[in-house]
Design goal:
This protein has 6 helices and no strands. It is mainly α. The protein has one domain. The longest helix is centred in the C-terminal third of the chain and has 28 residues. This is Stage V sporulation protein AE. InterPro entries: Spore_V_AE, SpoVA.
Amino acid sequence: MIYLKAFVVGGLICTLVQIFLDNTKLMPGRVMVLLVIAGAILGAAGLYEPLIKWAGCGASVPLSGFGYNLSKGVIEAVKEEGAIGLFKGGLKAAAAGTSSALIFSYLAALIFQPKMKK
């Protein structure tokens, strides 16, 4: 059942973003930033964590999940370290995912030798 929940929630998030992209003149990069900000705000308000607990990866994998992860890291770091946690928390919380993405992208580029389009 967890797979169905993840599929429905992840699909719903992606569908809403696609509708937003189709009906506004915002560039995709700005929409991605809005997703991260929305996840951070919902995470800071305590609304995103119940969704992640219910839907699992369907809510944590989209960019809004990344924003939630950043806000969660900042909140925890501020509780532990005070004001310096504002700067350290997000970086610490997102370091593993960001590092993994960079490492695996680099390995894929080495293996498949991508070329520029002409």
